[in-house]
Structure formats: structure tokens, C-alpha cells
Design a protein that fits this description.
The protein is an all-beta fold. Helices cover 0% and strands 40% of the residues. It contains no helices and 12 strands. It has strands spanning 11-13, 22-29, 39-41, 48-54, 56-62, 75-80, 84-86, 95-103, 112-114, 119-127, 129-134, 148-153. The chain is rod-shaped and about 115 Å long. It starts with 10 loop residues before the first strand and ends in a 21-residue tail after the last strand.
Length: 174
Amino acid sequence: SYTEQYRENAEITMQDATRDTYRFVGWQMSFGELDRNNKFSVTSDVTLTAQWEEIYYDVTIDPNGGVYDTHTSSFTESYRAGTELTIGTATRDTYRFTGWTADPNILGQDNKLIVTSNVTITANWEEIYYTLTIDPNGGVYDTHTGIFSDNYRADSYATLLTPTKTGCDFAYWK
């Protein structure tokens, strides 16, 4: 707070005040009123008190087909400006979590976020593939006569054919 002296009947215009993480909503006078342009005339000692409201922003988290916390779809929560959040890891069957994308890009190291605006955070995924290697062991598998490999999605099934070998009956896969 501070005090200033003005001559009587001076026209005073008050500027908007600023404060981190708060929105200025106006001045409250100890008596009388400011006009809509924040002006008043000095007629006696007066106290002006800044009026504030906290700023809140929406943080939307989209698990993008996966699960975050217990959420299986996008959800939004409001946080006071300046709040520090750590965004954890999401999960999704047959996918590997590769991180988060934020719009705007305000997500920091270790998935930390200081809430300074509305933001949408989306999970990023990479499909998991496994390699199936087949050794016909001197025989023929489909058209392959030697060892070969193929990649399959983690949630898919491979149907194994029966290999052939002249003079032998196939017993089992090992």
C-alpha cells in the first residue's frame, strides 16, 4: 500500500492493478464511487482497495484410446493459475506409451506443468510388435526353405502352417 497527496477537487484516474495469478476486477473506495473509467474527484481522504478474483484454467487430458488414472476418455479439470502439476503415465493394451503432447506446448521436463493457460494434453502411443522366427529345420515352410522372421502386432494371432520335408512326417513345433 502507499499514500499520495492531491489537491482538493483534483480529477484522479486509477490504472488497473496487476497481481500474478489474479484478475483485477476494480477498485473499491472507502466512500463514493469511481466512474466507469476509474475516475473520481478528490473531496477528502479516501482509501482505494484493489479487488481481485483468482484465475483458473482448464487442463484437459486425453488418454487417446488408453487409460489415465481411471479415465478412459478426455476429461477436464480446472486449476488455479500457477498450480504445478505432474502428469503421470497412461496405459493402453498392446501399445507402448511414448509421452505426452501439449497444446500449447507448455509441458516441461519430467511431465511437469505450471498452469498458465487452458491446455490440452494428449497421450502418444506406439504399437507393440513382436518378431516370430520360423526355422523349417531342413524342410519347407510355405515357400521358405531357410530361417525367416515376420513381425506381428501384439494383439494379433499367427496361424502356423505345417512344414513339409521329403521322407518325414511333421511332429510338432518346438
